[in-house]
Amino acid sequence: MRMSSLFLRTLRDDPADAEVTSHKLMVRAGLIRRVASGIYSWLPLGNRALRNVAQIVREEMDDAGAQEVTLPIAQPLDLWKQSGRDDAYGQMMFRVKDRKDNWYAMAPTAEEVVTTLVAGEYSSYRDLPVNLYQINWKYRDELRPRFGLLRAREFLMKDAYSFDADLAGLQASYDLMFHAYSQVFSRCGLTFRAVKAQSGEIGGDTSQEFMAVAAIGEDAFVWCEQCDYAANTEAATRRPTPEQVVPDQPPREVVHTPAMPGIDAVADHLGTTPDLLMKSIAFDVDGELVLVLVPGDREVNEYAVAGICAPAKVRLYTDADFDGHPEIPKGYIGPDFAGAARTLADSSLRAPHAWVTGANEADHHARNMVLGRDFTPTAWNEIVQVEAGDKCSSCGSPLRIDRGIEVGHVFQLGDKYSRALGAVYTDDAGAEHPMVMGCYGIGVSRILSAVIEEHHDDGGICWPAAIAPYQVHLVVIPGRGDNSAEVSAAAEQLYSDLRAREIDVLFDDRDVSPGVKFADADLLGMPVQVTIGAKGLARGVVERKIRATGDRDELALDVALDALTGH
Amino acid sequence: MRMSSLFLRTLRDDPADAEVTSHKLMVRAGLIRRVASGIYSWLPLGNRALRNVAQIVREEMDDAGAQEVTLPIAQPLDLWKQSGRDDAYGQMMFRVKDRKDNWYAMAPTAEEVVTTLVAGEYSSYRDLPVNLYQINWKYRDELRPRFGLLRAREFLMKDAYSFDADLAGLQASYDLMFHAYSQVFSRCGLTFRAVKAQSGEIGGDTSQEFMAVAAIGEDAFVWCEQCDYAANTEAATRRPTPEQVVPDQPPREVVHTPAMPGIDAVADHLGTTPDLLMKSIAFDVDGELVLVLVPGDREVNEYAVAGICAPAKVRLYTDADFDGHPEIPKGYIGPDFAGAARTLADSSLRAPHAWVTGANEADHHARNMVLGRDFTPTAWNEIVQVEAGDKCSSCGSPLRIDRGIEVGHVFQLGDKYSRALGAVYTDDAGAEHPMVMGCYGIGVSRILSAVIEEHHDDGGICWPAAIAPYQVHLVVIPGRGDNSAEVSAAAEQLYSDLRAREIDVLFDDRDVSPGVKFADADLLGMPVQVTIGAKGLARGVVERKIRATGDRDELALDVALDALTGH
């Protein structure tokens, strides 16, 4: 494609309505233009990148045995009433009425339509499993559309729906999708992890979100760079500390620590550090006092406590609780407090040293508290909030905590929709059962935002080759010298030769300054830049620059074609 | 693809709601399923065919220099108010309101959005021309959705929009699109012609409709099989008859023809045939009596009369006109009637013989009326309604009259939208002008209907190879004999080999009867059917059948792969 013809005007300045880098760069590089809040036109470069992502998704879905269909965007609202999701979506869904007063939902997803479709065609266990997917525009009437494609109201989504006879089949379908998703995001050049998730309006049981690491992500999560471990901050745990022998320690000793409001003050006063103190945190568990023991430098993960105690109800002690129990010395409870029904200890308290703890008496702490000698927890658990650098529970490498963009989501739906919409099958004994469903979404347009968040620098976008609108950005700098025609001719020849080898080339043949050309080449971000200028041509070379790394080298003109086409 | 896994259930019976063959076959062959009136889900086979058509369209648009974009389906209604099309579309357009009470049109086309887009990016004559296209879902709230995809409410359309500096540029852009359209419809296997058309709500001047010949088409049109001539029945003309010498004839003679209500009766009475009679039809043209002369066996084309007389107003004489002018002998006017201001004659009246005409006197006709001797028309024109078999005005071959499905439409829009929405450019002298636009639509989903209307037989669809969901339909008939496992293995091998050569194969590996397999293969309509059975395999052959022609031959198994892949 010649830039002299390409429908593109790059912008030097960030658009006023863009808050995040990917949105700014997508507008500046002429990939999208705003039409209304959260609604965009896709210009040629953006459209090409979008189609590249869609094609990767398609290939991986096909490889996983899913079959492509296209389901309507305008869906009878009655189906959504049958499933109960008309109410569940509420204002998030666009609804439209036809001339005969029939209502339609503008699809945010398509469980209802696809379930009805399968119910109409399939009825026997021999028909199953089947997995249908589509890549089509979806609609959500977001309260606050923002961040460009990240929270848009019209967006391209791949949605797949699996139908199985039983839970084992669902698990197999789910695993296939999980693998396909990993392939998709890897090919798109994203750093991502799958995280167990709460499901939203779609309802159902097991689900995992694929999070692309990005500072602007909406949710923080914990992940390991060395393995595929990842979890929401609430669910994350670190590697348990094994049992260890505590070397001989001096006997327990009570010290006076008056009016010391926090761990740091106590540590200072006693000449030690917070990580050698132990906190005994009071919880009300179905009316009983339960102490949660963690090191002084760590926070309790209340979700973990709730999980351990379930189905009992758990809450932190409040001031009112302490006021009603003057026998409990707030701020000075120790792990050996006799009034506790149970003590739950984080496994890190197995560290081979003695602890400073509360002395179960106001204004006093105990030191040289030794596990097994001075206190013995009722149970050991992983119960602190994970922090960056903690050891991965899977592989022991240091964990990271980052924000993430949700680029995909896989759900085990079960039979919610098949029951509501009559998708049943007959087993080999003639008995009827609802089909067991899974659903699987990928934010195709959103992937582009995530990719740009990960792959950019101050100059602009650095497209991964797999989704770049063009592979080579060819810049000609004819100059004003005698040989400018010769330079142009050489560039035209290379452009023509590359196209003949089916390389997608963006050719900057415009009559603008070299500065403008180089700035645009960096902004647009094709993986390889090739510059033909008078000086180089005089020496028989062109310059190649790898956009992502900035690495430059020179290629002899007579081998450039082979070098650029990987021969 | 294995049919044992394919999401497909074919139907033996026509669906109750389908009136036309293409709709019936698309449902029976499992290409589409109805979701609501005029709204369909596309199942795997239909989706593949649709994508094949879309890809052909894309390639031809790209070749013509158009650039692909994607414009939103949800478009701000304010833009439609600015162009005046909100009112013009009226109930034909779906409108949807968001949670903040902003209204959106669900795009029936995209002139407003694309004009605004180009206005925002381009401003100089140096920017032009540009042609942007998209392939996206469109919406029309049809009063009576019917015929499946032919009059659907949700349909896939390719819409392109060209922007030029002047009319000459527009003509060049239009010509490129015209050529591309011809390529598209040819590649899709359609018999089609471009017909000059009245434009609809889009407004504008010159436009042409591409009509695919089909008995179920909504409009009749005249076309030539030997050249590309075609026209609406109103605009169609036949080859003019040249001036000829009329051999000597007996003198004019008046005969009594009392109470003869029509041409046939007069001809009978006089022992001649209607084609040797001449009708003199009375028209009121701005208050004057104008006679239109045509042979007795032909009808006047009133649109042609109106065109010839424009800007004067033209209407046929009514009974009231005759009642007010008793001097005009209704039913007995001759071409030499003295009261006529003018006579317009169809050129076929130059035929080298004498005519029977009215004698300008009630109950009397004249015979032996000779051109140049007894009457001389004021002007010669092509003025009869064209009939099948008339000679093509371009090449002289016999014309056909058929009904057609509109599969494409090319418009020269002019500056209607660019003025309304501010798409202006500055010329090299610094003066501002509105851009000159064209718009170009192809009914991508509708093409499938037109193709099936043209390419089917009693057994089902006969897909042209270019858009067939699969190229080869491989049927295995393992039989019940000892070598059934061997037959299956040979089929599996061929399936695997064909796929390795990137041939799209549909493999009927189902455990159903040969009859069901053959019926489905014919219904689904892949271009080539290959059957592997026990008897053939014993002789080392497979059977090949060309679906469209029914031609069958046998291929030796060891050369079948090469034969099927064109080697």
Report what the structure shows.
- Two copies of one chain form a homodimer.
- With 567 residues, the first copy, chain A, is of the alpha+beta class.
- Chain A folds into three domains: 21-237 and 401-452, BirA Bifunctional Protein, domain 2 (2-Layer Sandwich), CATH 3.30.930.10; 253-381, YbaK/aminoacyl-tRNA synthetase-associated domain (YbaK protein); 472-564, Rossmann fold (3-Layer(aba) Sandwich).
- In chain A, 47% of the residues are buried.
- Chains A and B meet through β1, β2, α2, β3 and β4 of A and β1, β2, α2, β3 and β4 of B.
Domains of chain A, number: 3
CA-based shape of chain A: globular
Tell me, rounded to a whole number, the average pLDDT of chain A.
Answer: 95
Low-confidence stretches of chain A: 199-203
Largest sheet of chain A: 9 strands, mixed
Q: Please tally the helical runs of chain A, counting DSSP H or I stretches of 4 or more residues.
A: 15
The beta-strand count of chain A equals: 31
Radius of gyration of chain A: 31 Å
CATH architecture field of the largest domain in chain A = 2-Layer Sandwich
| Name of the CATH homologous superfamily of the largest domain in chain A | Bira Bifunctional Protein, Domain 2
Biggest interface and residues each: A-B, 55 and 55 residues
Structural class of chain A: alpha+beta
CATH class bucket of the largest domain in chain A:
Alpha Beta
First-last Cα distance of chain A = 22 Å
Work out the strand percent of chain A: 25-35%
Helix content of chain A: 25-40%
